[in-house]
Amino acid sequence: MRRRMAIATVALTVAVLTAACGGGGDGNNGSAKDAAKDSPVGERTIHSGEAPVRIQNFEFKPKTISVKAGTKVTWKNDDTAIHDVKDTSPLATPVSPEMGKGDTFSITYPQPGTYSYICAIHPYMTGSVVVEP
Fold it and tell me: Which residue among 69, 117, 119, 125 is least packed, with the fewest CB closer than 10 Å?
């Protein structure tokens, strides 16, 4: 009886672990498959007019955003912590004030180039704006 109980316990454990891991064997989870359907490999969105960047969980989302020249990029702080946006590229864009939850800051990018930035308060937070003609 003990042996049967032990075998049943091991079998149940293996079944639960296999189900939790997905068991699909392709190494992708559902969200990765869904993202692949929505955005084919190699395709990216190039924003024009206005482009949003969210500050969430101590990250800029998206980390890199592509825009057309003349596009206004607006950062919104969705964190409870204070953040800012400081340009680290040689193009010297304006630096934001410290932003609390719900605050926004915008820059309109008139010329092509890559503008790297950080949160000066949390320098491990990095991002970039790629401006295309």
Answer: 69
What's the domain count of the chain?
2
Q: What is the pTM of this model?
A: 0.66
Adjacent-strand bridge partners of 127: 117
Encode pLDDT of 51-72 as tens digits: 999 999 999 999 999 999 999 9
Q: CB-based burial of residue 30 (10 Å sphere; 0-12 exposed, 13-18 middle, 19+ buried)?
A: exposed
Residue in the structure block whose two tokens are 């075998």: 7
Q: What is the dihedral of CA 38, 41, 44, 45, to 10 degrees?
A: -10
Task: Give 69-111 as a 3 state SS string.
Answer: CCEEEEEEECCCCCECCEECCCCCCCCCCCECCCCEEEEEECC
Q: Which domain holds residue 19?
A: 2-38
Q: Report whether pLDDT(98) > 90.
A: yes
The answer to whether residues 118 and 54 belong to one domain is: yes
